[in-house]
Design brief:
Blueprint: H1 6-14, H2 20-31, H3 34-38, H4 41-48, H5 52-61, H6 67-76, H7 85-97, H8 102-116, H9 120-135, E1 139-143, H10 148-159, E2 165-167, E3 187-192, H11 198-209, E4 214-218, E5 231-234, H12 247-263, H13 265-281
Parallel strand pairs: 1-2, 1-3, 3-4, 4-5
Length: 294
């Protein structure tokens, strides 16, 4: 586990005042802090998608004499854990030597990410968020582009428990229309990751103007949702391949559904029985699968 120190807090504090290039470099350092101590400045810059000079400018922007000064201070608060950068690099080397492939590394990485969600801070955040969701009159659920699957999954599971959720997923540009009837007694549950969907941020701002509390499931302490949300649950998205993983976000979604169901177990059971009766009457699922003769 990374021990977050004053430097971590300083980057977040000054993030909004940075240029776009400095923000890109800073975001990468927040998400991959071990790299500062373990790779060269050029490699760090390449991984962040910026020029090496940007790293020097970032160091000076944060008040250091240069990059080496910044690196030295950063290394003081870095502690590499079993699922950290160095360990993952060793695991990849070992995997290559043993003939283990991408599938194994991806599944191993996902297992570590789910395990990281078990830390006490995340558990507290999940319980706090569930309490606020339970007290709301309505939960407006928002997740666009890659995050659509997470929002839809949360909404689908919650429909089995009643009519508390509204999925902001209208056709023909009408996604925000259900907010017409939203009030400050409702909440917006917004899910987004970098690069952040502009429409998600616009709808979140519209909800805030209606004085709706905003709860966010997002990927970084410098996510634009963090500045407007009352409660936030963070999840990792780094992947062994070219796309961000959303498996931890789906795990967060399922935990919230479970916590909400447990708030009133008798009511949840009655709603589930009602759903079962309806699905059975609609002949939704196959009750038996005939075997083919060989």
């Amino acid at each position: 586990m990374l021990q977050k120190g004053p430097l971590h807090a300083l980057i977040i504090e000054r993030f909004d005042k940075m240029s776009e290039q400095l923000q890109q470099a800073a975001r990468h350092i927040l998400e991959h802090p071990q790299e500062v101590a373990l790779v060269s400045m050029r490699e760090l810059a390449r991984n962040a998608g910026v020029q090496p000079s940007t790293m020097t400018r970032l160091a000076k922007f944060l008040g250091f004499s240069g990059y080496e000064d910044f690196r030295g201070h950063h290394a003081d608060v870095i502690r590499v854990s079993a699922d950290g950068f160095a360990a993952r690099a060793l695991q990849r080397d070992e995997g290559a030597a043993n003939g283990e492939g991408l599938a194994y590394r991806m599944l191993q990485g996902l297992s570590g990410q789910i395990n990281r969600l078990c830390d006490s801070d995340t558990i507290l955040r999940l319980n706090t968020m569930a309490d606020h969701l339970a007290k709301a009159r309505r939960i407006y659920v928002l997740g666009l582009r890659s995050c659509h699957s997470v929002a839809w999954h949360f909404h689908y599971v919650m429909t089995l428990l009643g009519e508390k959720t509204v999925h902001l997923d209208g056709p023909a540009g009408t996604s925000g229309d259900p907010l017409i009837r939203a009030t400050q007694d409702d909440v917006l549950l917004a899910i987004s990751i970098n690069p952040y969907s502009l429409q998600t941020l616009e709808l979140a701002e519209a909800a805030r103007e209606k004085r709706m509390p905003i709860l966010a499931i997002t990927d970084s302490e410098v996510s634009p949702l963090v500045t407007i949300a009352e409660h936030v649950v963070l999840f990792p998205t780094e992947s062994q391949t070219f796309f961000h993983t959303l498996t931890p976000a789906l795990a967060v979604s399922e935990v919230l559904c479970g916590l909400l169901a447990s708030h009133d177990r008798s009511a949840a059971l009655e709603e589930l029985k009602r759903a079962d009766r309806h699905l059975s009457a609609m002949n939704t699922y196959a009750t038996s699968i005939p075997r083919r003769k060989i």
